[in-house]
Design brief:
The complex is a heterotrimer of chains A (296), B (304) and C (339). Chain A has 296 residues and is mainly α. Chain A folds into 2 domains: 42 residues; 226 residues, MetI-like fold (Orthogonal Bundle), CATH 1.10.3720. Helix content of chain A is 77%, strand content 1%. A two-stranded antiparallel ribbon of chain A has the order 1-2. In chain A, a hairpin with a 6-residue loop joins β1 and β2. Chain B is mainly alpha-helical and 304 residues long. Helix content of chain B is 73%, strand content 0%. Chain C is globular. With 339 residues, chain C is of the alpha/beta class. In chain C, β1, α2 and β2 form a beta-alpha-beta unit. The chains are: A mainly alpha (296), B mainly alpha (304), C alpha/beta (339). Chains in contact: A-B, A-C, B-C.
């Protein structure tokens, strides 16, 4: 078909415009990586990488500054660990229940409510952790600090359940019905089918769900900023105050971070650590999700 | 194997099955119970504080006088910028990936980036914005910076929602359009977009509701917590009667105001925080609920 | 989706935006250009400046905007020396490094004392074993050598119980931190690193209030706002234990933790009519508002001197670039009058 030249030009122009918009994603990623590395490089000019990775104290703004990132990483992992202990089992059980047991009507009601659970703003969860959960926990654990790792950890776990359950459930839905039916035909119960047949088949998807949950917990900021405290602490004890990578960045930003100062450089050092951790997890998750597609 | 043993086995399995059914139901209910408790706790603490005065007052050092005026106006203004950034960019990117993208390495790279960005912690976006928007482009700690930051944050959501809505449209529609001699863009403009509009809108609303509750990146770009004024009015008295100065003004938003009040130890401020939390929560839940409802209705109506 | 529903949505969006825009129109007079006064710095001084800013903005009915940040005394001075803010809140006098930075940037400052603070040490109300501490005991707890070693109460004083010592204190950008370390440890900024540090004193109050084994320090006003959550400790500076109060700070017996707190005004900003009006408003109402936020007001004579200083735009500091520990209000007045 012959078209007018002007139409062709217009079509081409529109296509290029749309391409530009799509390229924005690459542009954003490149900017993030570039800025993080550039500013972190400025940091590592003054601080040795060895001290950063192995030092046991994080007091970058004191008269005798110490630049060990371990306390912050440890704080992040401690809270994430607690969150994961809550979210992964419950999330998986909910997914199994919804995928294998629940009648359709129940699913229709439950799924939107789980979505709403994930939609609650994180400040509100932080409020809940500090002013509702911590006092309750203090009745059972008398030595519990006002700021501790346990309370925000539990709340974060609850926050992540919807992520874990929805991705796990999608993975289990992808397992074809005839595999289940074969199992039922042999006289297996739903429980046996779920655990011995469906879960192993959906393993990659479930692993991806777990990884998404962990990644989300590591990157969480407000719940820990409000309820976990602002004290870098190299400990595995959940009843003590700690500080996570994210809470440190926010705490410093509450003041002021003029470009080029030491505080500015430290938040980028913490930022790049955080970014690398989540990047690693995202790649792992992506790899797992690719495996699902290959299996079926 | 004797019958007795087999019977026992079967009974045990049945028992486990029922037990799990109960555990499963209980676990699912945990989510409900907790959401419910959270909402009730917030309401008990904050509801009495929700007066007209609360909505129309500035923050103050007196908890009884403090209100969320600058916060909710700031939220709406920032949302305008966020939507203006994320919606055109996201829909355009989504259209490209679904309609124009060939299966080459470039498209693949774009997709990987999009998916990865969805998993980047929000505070990293804050750091990006600090270095790029605040210092490099010299936008400063302004509404424009805040809106752009959040726009970038929810961009992956809009793109994914656009792609899924477009993907749901069967090829027969496209082919029919081409058969009648329409160009690619005409097909998209007149057929694809109208049908996918509902799904896209759902994605946009969910993205915006996420942006409303975001605190960390906004703190990083420098929203202050004591703002006892409103940004410059966009309506000015001289020609051309429209001002964009408000884009560069300092600002605060609802979640930051709540965060500030939580951080103050006086219980009276905690009540204020709970009230602000109720407003925030209601806003978010309403938007999400609306989006979910729309998605449900949209799916029901379109019968291919 | 039906066209009418789409239209309805757009109308709704339009209405909401219009509502927000109109609100800004009603509450900030359309005819004004925005005049903004930027203030930042000490979180100790913050309650006073916040009160003044609130009353001032109310009086001006929104034609002037005042923003107040809490970056800490050090953070405030950094911004001040780059000309980014008009007024800096400070809970200690400007130090040599900051003076040089201002000189380099060509910034001249007018130093105005606005109140007196009794830096308070406090513990959790459930703490029933200590009512007063000596300066020597505090030094043992806070000096750099204590880091990682002094972790229990009985290590400081054997009569105290064997439970962990949890410390909360002002952050590193804080003038309170500088002053406390200078007064207690003997050298400014020399301190152990393992304590919960925050520029935001509210965080410290919450921490101490919820932890039985805690100990912390910050400005008196934050104690006075939360007496139900905190327990005051008397300080023995050599003349017996003294509790901080308006009386003991005014007559100089609460030592060494009594100190003047200031605002520093950029001389060029003072040329702007709104800044001039704000500072005059500040000094005129300081006595009342300082009392309201529970700090100790200076005698009227002091505020009059400060007014004159400002009217004459006298720059420079009377402290020579370092804080003087254990200064009584009378001494401050003498210093001010000397210039």
């Amino acid at each position: 078909m012959k078209r007018k030249l002007s139409t062709k030009i217009k079509e081409r122009a529109i296509e290029n415009l749309l391409l530009l918009s799509a390229l924005s994603s690459i542009f954003i990623t490149v900017s993030i990586v570039f800025i993080l590395f550039y500013e972190a490089l400025g940091f590592f000019k003054d601080v040795s990488l060895w001290e950063f990775l192995t030092g046991k104290q994080w007091t970058p703004l004191f008269a005798q500054p110490k630049f060990g990132i371990l306390p912050l990483v440890c704080g992040t992992l401690l809270v994430t660990g607690i969150a994961v202990l809550v979210a992964l089992p419950i999330g998986l059980i909910v997914a199994i229940y919804l995928s294998e047991y629940a009648p359709f009507k129940v699913k229709e009601v439950v799924k939107p409510i789980l979505e709403l659970l994930a939609a609650v703003p994180t400040v509100v969860y932080g409020y809940f952790a500090l002013l509702f959960l911590t006092p309750i926990l203090q009745k059972f654990i008398p030595n519990l600090s006002g700021f501790n790792a346990l309370s925000p950890g539990i709340i974060m776990g609850i926050m992540i359940i919807p992520y874990v359950s929805s991705v796990s459930e999608d993975a289990m839905k992808a397992v074809p019905m005839h595999i289940r039916e074969g199992s039922y035909a042999m006289g297996a119960t739903k429980f046996q089918t779920a655990f011995k047949v469906v879960i192993p088949s959906a393993f990659s998807g479930i692993a991806a769900a777990f990884i998404i949950g962990i990644s989300r917990a590591i990157g969480e900021t407000m719940v820990v900023a409000i309820a976990a405290g602002m004290m870098p602490n190299l400990t595995l004890n959940p009843i003590e105050p700690i500080q996570t990578l994210t809470a440190y960045i926010v705490g410093v930003s509450l003041g002021d971070v003029p470009h080029g100062t030491l505080e500015y450089k430290t938040i980028f050092a913490a930022g790049i650590t955080l970014f690398l951790m989540t990047l690693f997890l995202n790649i792992l998750g992506f790899w797992f999700r690719k495996r699902i597609r290959e299996v079926y | 194997m004797e019958t007795g043993k087999i019977r026992k086995r079967i009974a045990l399995n049945r028992f486990r099955d029922h037990l799990f059914w109960i555990i499963g139901l209980l676990s699912t209910l945990i989510g409900f119970v907790l959401l419910f408790t959270l909402i009730i706790d917030l309401f008990i603490d904050g509801f009495p504080r929700l007066t007209l005065q609360f909505f129309l007052s500035y923050p103050s050092r007196f908890p009884e006088k403090a209100g969320i005026l600058s916060a909710w106006v700031g939220t709406i203004l920032v949302m305008i910028v966020t939507a203006a950034t994320a919606v055109p960019l996201g829909i355009a990117a989504g259209i490209y990936l679904e309609e124009y993208g060939k299966k080459n390495w470039l498209t693949h790279l774009i997709e990987i980036n999009m998916n990865n960005l969805a998993g980047v912690p929000s505070i990293i976006y804050g750091l990006l914005a600090l270095a790029f928007f605040v210092y490099f482009l010299k936008f400063g700690e302004s509404i424009l910076t805040g809106g752009l930051t959040l726009g970038l944050l929810i961009l992956p959501m809009v793109v994914i929602a656009t792609r899924e809505s477009i993907r749901a449209i069967p090829n027969s529609i496209r082919e029919a359009s081409y058969a009648l001699g329409a160009t690619k863009w005409q097909t998209i403009k007149d057929h694809i977009l109208p049908y996918s509009f509902g799904g896209i809108l759902t994605g946009v609303i969910i993205g915006l509701s996420r942006a409303i509750g975001e605190t960390a990146p906004i703190i990083t770009v420098g929203a202050l917590t004591f703002i006892a004024f409103l940004p410059t009015s966009p309506i000015s008295s001289e020609f051309p009667f429209l001002s964009f100065k408000w884009l560069m003004d300092p600002f605060t938003v609802m979640p930051i105001q709540m965060f500030n009040w939580i951080s103050r130890p006086q219980t009276a401020f905690h009540i204020n925080a709970a009230a602000a939390g109720i407003v925030l929560l209601l806003l978010t839940l309403l938007m999400n609920g609306f989006a979910i409802y729309m998605r449900y209705r949209f799916r029901k109506r379109i019968k291919w | 989706m039906r066209k009418t529903q789409v239209h309805f949505l757009f109308v709704l969006l339009g209405v909401l935006s219009w509502l927000a825009l109109c609100t800004t129109g009603t509450f900030s007079p359309v005819w004004s250009q925005s005049k903004t006064i930027k203030i930042d710095g000490s979180s100790t001084v913050y309650p006073i400046t916040e009160a003044v800013a609130e009353e001032f903005q109310r009086m001006k009915k929104g034609s002037v905007k005042v923003t107040v940040g809490i970056s800490g005394t050090g953070g405030g001075f950094k911004k001040f020396s780059r000309g980014e803010i008009d007024i800096s809140n400070a809970s200690r006098p400007i130090v040599k490094k900051e003076m040089d930075a201002c000189k380099e940037a060509g910034i001249e400052y007018i130093e105005l004392p606005v109140a007196y603070d009794g830096l308070t040490v406090m513990v959790n109300p459930k703490n029933n074993w200590v009512t007063y501490m000596t300066v020597a005991e505090l030094k043992k707890i806070w000096e750099p050598a204590a880091e990682g070693k002094i972790t229990k109460w009985n290590q400081v004083n054997p009569s105290w119980p064997d439970i962990p010592l949890k410390l909360y204190g002002a952050g590193v950008d804080s003038g309170t931190f500088d002053y406390f370390t200078e007064a207690i440890v003997g050298k400014s900024r020399a301190s152990r690193g393992d304590f919960t540090a925050s520029e935001d004193d509210n965080v410290l109050v919450q921490g101490i209030a919820s932890d039985r084994s805690s100990l912390g320090f910050f400005g008196y006003a934050y104690y006075a706002e939360n007496t139900d959550k905190l327990k005051l400790i008397a300080i023995d500076g050599g003349k017996g234990p003294i509790l901080p109060s308006e009386k003991t700070v005014m007559d100089g017996t609460y030592q060494p933790l009594s100190r003047p707190i200031f605002i520093y005004v950029n001389k060029k900003s003072a040329e702007k009519p709104e800044v001039k009006e704000f500072v005059e408003f500040y000094l005129k109402n300081a006595s009342k508002l300082v009392k309201e936020v529970k700090y100790i007001p200076l005698p009227d004579r002091a505020y009059k001197l400060a007014m004159e200083r400002f009217a004459k735009r006298m720059t420079g500091t009377v402290f020579g670039g370092e804080a003087k520990i254990g200064m009584k209000i009378e001494d401050l007045l003498k210093l001010e009058e000397k210039k």
